[in-house]
């Protein structure tokens, strides 16, 4: 969602490759590791959410807490991090998620979602359409670029290991230097930073085949149920786009919600697994009650 996000420097990465699963946690002190999870979007609390999904499906997993980039807002680490992961590892795809994004259905694999979202062998990057918001009691609409096209949200980013992808990520990361894109330095510290730079410049230059950059439906990967009913929400804005986060929910306004949604998703999965187990063992579990004998009941 196109609103300020204080925790965007925490990125969780699901990495699809051929190697056995790797789990890597960085920048965690012993105090952080032992601390209670009062704030669910900070490390190490957020790490367990995506890590469990990666373990279920056999994906590699890494948790990154970005270091400050002098002169840049911290989320500018995103294009550099993605390029590094593709160059230094034998992965077909890398997917990053902000720490306030939750996975709604943990049993649904990424491969199924890639098919749903029409990610092809030419797709370099996929990310969701942002929601549009309106400043309370004004006519100002947020969520569009300077050409009037809805921006893409970088809270969820999927990249495929292709030469075109690395070229695109290089241009994205270098955008604020203005060697190629005049005016991009404005987004070094101005919200929404690298996300807005991608929508203002990069997407118009790196989609020659029409499916090199794939927008994901807002209803699949943004916002949460009931967001449009909150009037006004934080930052004095109202959500206009009725997006429910059917597969991925981005809680830009409610940092407290990912914890409860993670618990609900795990319990739903557990219940389905238990139900399947009961069905598999029905012959040993089910006992049919005998019909009542003529002449009365009684204990059989």
TrEMBL record:
The entry's keywords: Glycosyltransferase, Transferase
Gene3D superfamilies assigned: Spore Coat Polysaccharide Biosynthesis Protein SpsA, Chain A
GO function terms (MF aspect): glycosyltransferase activity
Which GO BP terms apply? Answer: protein N-linked glycosylation
- Does Transferase count among this protein's keywords? yes
One Gene Ontology cellular component term attached to this UniProt record is: Golgi membrane
Region annotation (Disordered) maps to 1-35
Alphabetical list of InterPro entries matching this protein: Glyco_trans_34, Nucleotide-diphossugar_trans
User: Biased composition, Acidic residues: where in the chain?
Assistant: 1-12
Q: Where is the composition biased (Basic and acidic residues)?
A: 13-29
Describe the family membership recorded for this protein in Swiss-Prot or TrEMBL.
Belongs to the glycosyltransferase 34 family.
Query: By what name is this protein known?
Result: Nucleotide-diphospho-sugar transferase domain-containing protein
From which source organism is this entry?
Zymoseptoria tritici ST99CH_1A5
Traced from the root, the source organism's taxonomic lineage reads: Eukaryota, Fungi, Dikarya, Ascomycota, Pezizomycotina
